[in-house]
Write a structure and sequence with these properties.
InterPro entries: OMP_A26_sf. Helices cover about 5% and strands about 60% of the residues. By secondary structure, it is mainly beta. The strands form 2 sheets. Strands 1-4-5-8-9-10-11-12-13-14 form a 10-stranded antiparallel β-barrel.
């Protein structure tokens, strides 16, 4: 209930940004940065593609030396995993120089990775325990570790845009609008790790859910970009290029729940994060109403959770630490102008 209340409060804050708009007055001029969108016309965009999210390793299993010191932890790295992604956006003109843009994305990334801990006669392969008491296999026994992690990364944004006529530019970039927006995001991770001996005997399991909410606001600029060596080729194919750069501050709420047979642990932490990104779009107009875009987004996230598991040898307890991460999404997007044909076919 607490998380639901926070999400609803965030949505209310996002909706309040609608006050940036003015009464509608249709006017027909192009808005670079959303390519062919025009004031007086609304545009719906939907698409899908690939995504990547560089999350920290889960190091729950490890090898212990003869004195009990941890020699290394098994790595279940997530940085080389790709998944699918969906996106949608609705741009609604609102006044002669303003518009509202409601958008969102979802990315799903799955990992299934196996590693092996090799132990000699004085070493042991072990798995962390949530409360500081280590569970281990007999000394000298190798362990297989199979980790499956499912990650859902989604967000929804509402922004008010102000379009500028005659904005300064140069040979590379022409800025056409500035924006202020509200943003709600989540990164939800569900992990299961199974341990077994080389002969196939069960040696234990671990389940973890790690959910992180982001609530914040951002500023953005959008427009057209030009690459001089590419312009002749681009104009010959009838392509248009747009960009959007954004940066924002977010409140972060992260909740952890871990379970091993006979034991469980719940933790939570709050913090702040910076998220900044750049979206590049190349668009081809097929009819006055429809176009197709290739869109790539690159993001930096200053705060994502990184679990530090208990170690009875050092007295370390299980805690939620943090690190940074990078995300990217590349999608093919269909853009459709809404409204009667008379707006598009003169």
């Amino acid at each position: 209930m607490l998380r639901f209340g926070k999400i609803m409060a965030g949505l209310a804050g996002v909706a309040a940004l609608a006050g940036l708009a003015y009464p509608a007055a249709a006017q027909d001029y192009s808005m670079p940065g959303v390519a062919t969108t025009k004031v007086g016309e609304a545009e719906l965009s939907i698409g899908g593609g690939l995504s990547r999210l560089d999350l920290p390793d889960i190091r729950f299993g490890y090898r212990s030396g003869p004195s009990g010191n941890r020699e290394y932890a098994n790595s279940n790295g997530f940085e080389d995993e790709f998944g699918g992604s969906l996106t949608g956006q609705l741009v609604i003109p609102w006044g002669s120089t303003t518009a509202l843009a409601l958008g969102g994305f979802w990315s799903g990334i799955d990992q299934d990775k196996g590693v092996r801990c090799e132990a000699n006669g004085v070493q042991s392969c072990e798995a962390s325990n949530l409360t500081g008491v280590n569970a281990s296999a007999p000394v000298g026994v190798d362990l297989r570790e199979r980790a499956k992690r499912d990650v859902d990364h989604w967000g929804t944004q509402l922004e008010g845009r102000y379009y500028m006529q005659g904005a300064p530019g140069n040979a590379f970039v022409n800025t056409s609008y500035v924006a202020l927006g509200g943003d709600i995001r989540q990164i939800n991770q569900d992990t299961r790790i199974n341990f077994s001996t080389l002969s196939g005997l069960d040696a234990g399991s671990y389940k973890e859910s790690l959910d992180t909410d982001y609530y914040g606001a951002y500023v953005a600029i959008g427009g057209e970009y030009h690459l001089p060596f590419f312009e002749n080729f681009k104009s010959g194919l009838g392509l248009e290029s747009g960009f959007k750069a954004y940066a924002g501050l977010y409140a972060v709420d992260s909740d952890y729940n871990g379970r091993v047979p006979g034991n469980s642990l719940g933790l939570s932490t709050d913090d702040t994060a910076f998220i900044g990104g750049l979206t590049l779009e190349t668009r081809k107009q097929f009819t006055p109403r429809t176009s197709l875009s290739l869109e790539s987004t690159y993001e930096y996230i200053s705060w994502v959770p990184e679990m530090q598991y208990s170690n009875s040898n050092t007295g370390q307890s299980t805690t939620i630490d943090d690190t940074d991460a990078f995300a990217s999404r590349t999608m093919l997007r269909l853009n459709v102008g809404l409204g009667p044909d008379g707006l598009y076919y003169k």
